[in-house]
Amino acid sequence: MLAILLVVVAGCGNANGNGNGGNSASGGNANTSSQNQSETKKEVTLKVATLIPPMTDILELVKPLLKEDGINLELVVLSDNVQPNDALANKEVDANFFQHVPYMNEYNESKKSNLVGVQPVYHAVYGAYSKRYKTMKEVPDGSTIAIANDATNTGRSLVMLEKAGLIKLKEGVGIKATQADIIENPHNYKFEEVDLLMLARMLDDADLVLMTPAYASPLGLTPKKDALLTETTDSAFAITMVAREDNKDSEPIKKLAERLSGPEVKKFLEENYAEIAIPAFE
Known about the structure:
Layout: E1 7-9, H1 29-40, E2 44-50, H2 55-68, E3 71-77, H3 83-89, E4 95-99, H4 101-111, E5 115-124, E6 127-129, E7 144-148, H5 151-163, E8 168-169, E9 182-184, E10 190-194, E11 208-211, H6 213-216, H7 223-226, E12 229-230, E13 238-244, H8 251-260, H9 263-272, E14 277-279
Parallel strand pairs: 2-3, 2-4, 7-10, 7-11
Antiparallel strand pairs: 1-3, 4-13, 5-13, 5-14, 6-11, 6-12, 8-9
Helix pairs in contact: 2-8
Pfam family, one: Lipoprotein_9
Subcellular location: Membrane
Keywords: Lipoprotein, Membrane, Palmitate, Signal
């Protein structure tokens, strides 16, 4: 069903084959023990759907570490922010790594699926970027602001603007806010909702674009040095490894979670993505 599959970075071998016939007459407890040990160490393949760096980079980093655990990690790199959840829900992959839990919850509600957040990995700090202005004070009244069109990231964008004192939302709507919940818009901003993957392209057309570092960094932009406005770190939006209810407690998924929250990943983020990704684990 993954017709739009872009890249599959595959390791070697699937562990489902069984090389012995099970009827050996040469027997002996030592041979049986050796055979059992061999079976225990057989490599299993774990397919993980993902999208872009730094998610892909992190998975490539832990791939050889999982090899030591007897797990062949296979990356399934897809082209939009719906396919990874569809693939996981349809059991075409074993896990995915590209989203925060509120986005996953929105998918579960709309598709009646049972995806489960397993391991938060890093905080991707949302920022507001512009090609035309250097500070929020320069952004004129009536400007067009591009925001993500999925429910959770629409709400996330509006909450960030509210916390900055730029708009006011209905009491208690939180990240479920929509444009209809804006009760005060003193600067008469106009909001254009687009797909997450289109946000970076909107920099040429909109006055301000709100997006995560994953989409800003390919343009050479980071929250720390380029954003006119940023959100505070919120654990609810940590980019998280997600599995299904039926496999979240399996040994390979537990090993993947362990490796994704290990010292190697923390060091990698601190050395390579310090300005855009803050580790979400100790």
